[in-house]
Amino acid sequence: MDNTTLFDVQLLAKANVKMILKEVYQLLEERGYQPINQIVGYLMSGDPGYISSYKGAREKIMSIDRAMLLAYILQEYLK
Questions:
Q1: Which pTM value belongs to this model?
Q2: For residue 9, what pLDDT band results from cuts at 50, 70 and 90?
Q3: What is the DSSP string of 21-60?
């Protein structure tokens, strides 16, 4: 019997995007920022300066391609 485990790469990528986005949102909020404004500023301009470096938030959000992040947000909104 073959015990091969299959992974849905797109499902894993979406879960990773969601986890990182939530974490960055929480870190910005914890730091006293308006997370929506900061994330939108980053997405619109590409300037990582919109995201605080607090607890690695900037590095985390930069680990996701901006186009992938926008696609994820749009897909979730349209559900």
A1: 0.82
A2: low
A3: HHHHHHHHHHTT--HHHHHHHHHHH--GGGS--GGGHHHH
